[in-house]
Amino acid sequence: xxxxxxxxxxxxxxxxxxxxxxxxxxxxxxxxxxxxxxxxxxxxxxxxxxxxxxxxxxxxxxxxxxxxxxxxxxxxxxxxxxxxxxxxxxxxxxxxxxxxxxxxxxxxxxxxxxxxxxxxxxxxxxxxxxxxxxxxxxxxxxxxxxxxxxxxxxxxxxxxxxxxxxxxxxxxxxxxxxxxxxxxxxxxxxxxxxxxxxxxxxxxxxxxxxxxxxxxxxxxxxxxxxxxxxxxxxxxxxxxxxxxxxxxxxxxxxxxxxxxxxxxxxxxxxxxxxxxxxxxxxxxxxxxxxxxxxxxxxxxxxxxxxxxxxxxxxxxxxxxxxxxxxxxxxxxxxxxxxxxxxxxxxxxxxxxxxxxxxxxxxxxxxxxxxxxxxxxxxxxxxxxxxxxxxxxxxxxxxxxxxxxxxxxxxxxxxxxxxxxxxxxxxxxxxxxxxxxxxxxxxxxxxxxxxxxxxxxxxxxxxxxxxxxxxxxxxxxxxxxxxxxxxxxxxxxxxxxxxxxxxxxxxxxxxxxxxxxxxxxxxxxxxxxxxxxxxxx
Length: 536
What we know:
Layout: H1 4-9, H2 19-51, E1 52-54, E2 72-75, H3 78-104, H4 111-127, H5 135-147, H6 157-162, H7 184-197, H8 201-226, H9 231-242, H10 245-253, H11 258-270, E3 275-276, E4 296-297, H12 301-317, H13 322-331, H14 336-357, H15 359-367, H16 391-411, H17 422-435, H18 445-453, H19 458-474, H20 487-517
Parallel strand pairs: 1-2
Antiparallel strand pairs: 3-4
């Protein structure tokens, strides 16, 4: 990595530094080392917690002989594992923030090193048992129900357990009395994994994690290719996505299917690019656009059609990704042909799929209506937000979300105009992540890769603090049971009901303040939406 002084001079040999410049370079190096140490130690702790069979982070399940997955025998102490994983979340989030600050000050991390490290870490997580969540047990159960010829939106894990099926034993740890709430493509993925994994939940989950790894690395490569002409933006993207310990924990260690939805949504919005307007008819070759001609034209209708299809695929995994469809519509509102094409692509992807699964999915979703997560800030004002909400409270949060989204649509700068769907996607996605009453930290991946295409600003730090707080609250995540009685449970409750909500409320206040003051403090804005130079 180069120092801030080297970046400032633009040469390989920095000029003699004044004391202030030397102090700035030392701070940049310190931030870079803090990033490397924080991110590296966080990932190592997460791998260690995932590798041991009897770990508070790893759900209990029968293990097949041989491998994959790879796991170590033994037992990790409960208290030490909680403390280590809380530290890992703070170190990981703090390391990413330090790295972003170092990049903003001129540090440059070698892109090949970052990509290689990401591939190695992702491969390690793919081979290890699931950790940090019991959701993969849900996936295995619903996949098994589909393989047996039943409807996973109707048959419940409890009913599968009563048939004596081996996978039914997982029902004690997961959603027991309700059918699947995942989209039709998620069910297809889960069924395919169950076909390959047979009656071993560990093998089913291995296939799910392997596919997650491939999709995740696809986004790594996509971001690198899109930003390869700008070393600063390239390094920032890998810090936010490729080597972000909190993203790796939520997607790769835990195996959440959000990886598929996030990747489809990311590529769908990233391909929607405005076209440079050509010269007026009869103008000499190479002449600029005429005075009455707009600087940009809308995306090609076929590109918009493909974007709609990809965003529809994201919604076919998780229905909440229809928020990105709303962002796509907002971004294309000035170009009717592109807007209609995107709508057609979305309809082709979404309508037949959801008509096929029918009303049972809607019923399953409605049964969970009003459910809140532990990491919501509303509980600071009312303990009602620690329990399922009545419709009146639900409506109040909808209005808060709408107000926050409109504020961000109005005040968040359109800093990459060549990508017309990027700013509305960030505005709507960030509003939902900040103020909705049911949030889990891995939901943030809806906007993390998109944020990497946006210029660096103070918004990066706010969203990383928000993600860190949510991750701390969900640690260690390997069991639905509360921590053991004593100081550990007391401390956990303080995190859930006091400290995390306070931090989340602070993040909401920070984003509102940025909107009202305009103090985003953007870094350099490169032409992300433009074709990258050949050989860059």
